[in-house]
Design goal:
About 35% of the residues lie in helices and about 25% in strands. By secondary structure, the chain is an alpha/beta fold. The protein has a single domain (about 1-155), classed as 3-Layer(aba) Sandwich (Oxidized Rhodanese, domain 1), CATH 3.40.250. The strands form 3 sheets. Strands 2-6-5-3-4 form a 5-stranded parallel beta sheet. It has a 3-stranded mixed beta sheet with strand order 1-10-9. The protein has a two-stranded antiparallel ribbon with strand order 7-8. The N and C termini lie close together (about 5 Å).
Length: about 160
């Protein structure tokens, strides 16, 4: 169901209340990376920690879907523990849980994308699906979809 379409494409300011919400949901006890730093980062594995429905609608380029709570442990066990891994979800809550888990099983260089894919798209960065680039973004639910300011919001 299409809820709304926003086109700001300013690529700069995010609503400060968005970051307040992110800080309330996350513990900040795991390493994080900002959208700005991710854009220039090289040589990393990107893990999408959302539902299959969210991932199929759109995801960040080269992201590997691992699930949102019932993670694909076979896939995670195949990853090299010394590789840089960045996990993301909508705003950073679910991906923070995965980063905690990866640290607990001795992954050395793992990060949570601060603000998740919502911050990524709100700053004008591209997302894609199996057909290529898209503006469609899954808003998770009605409550969270209000934080998306750029793209065509579905939930």
């Amino acid at each position: 169901m299409l809820i709304s379409v926003f086109k700001t494409n300013n690529g700069f300011a995010q609503d400060p209340s968005f970051y307040k919400m992110v800080n309330q949901l996350t513990t900040g006890t795991v390493p994080s990376i900002t959208t700005k730093k991710l854009k220039v980062k090289e040589n990393f594995i990107l893990l999408d920690v959302r539902s299959k429905e969210e991932y199929d609608l759109s995801h960040m380029k080269n992201a590997i879907w691992v699930g949102e709570g019932d993670w694909n442990l076979n896939l995670l066990n195949e990853l090299e523990k010394d590789k840089t891994i960045i996990a993301y979800c909508s705003v950073g809550y679910r991906s923070e849980k995965l980063v905690e888990y990866l640290i607990s099983i001795n992954f050395k260089d793992v990060y949570n994308l601060y603000g998740g894919v919502f911050d990524w798209i709100n700053k004008g960065n591209p997302i894609e699906n199996s057909s290529g680039k898209t503006e469609k973004i899954h808003g998770y639910n009605k409550k969270f979809s209000k934080w998306i300011k750029n793209g065509a919001v579905f939930y």
